[in-house]
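User: Please predict the structure of the protein below. I'd like the answer in structure-token form so I can feed it into my own downstream comparison script.

Assistant: Understood. Taking the following sequence of 70 residues as input:
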Amino acid sequence: MSRRGNCWDNAVAESFFSSLKKERIRKRVYKTRDLARADVFDYIEMFYNSTRRHSHLGGLSPEAFERASL
């Protein structure tokens, strides 16, 4: 991943972690590591993967994209 020419491999991960930090982690203080893990899981499964708008889908959320393509 750190080889020259593989900037796209890192770009996706860096974009995701930037969004995670801005939208979720920086706003919270977790009492335990388990609470932090549960909150990150919730962010990924309930928000990021389903309702957050994605540029590759024309600015639509995955749910809206699926409804539009039916």
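That's the full token string. The mean pLDDT is 82.
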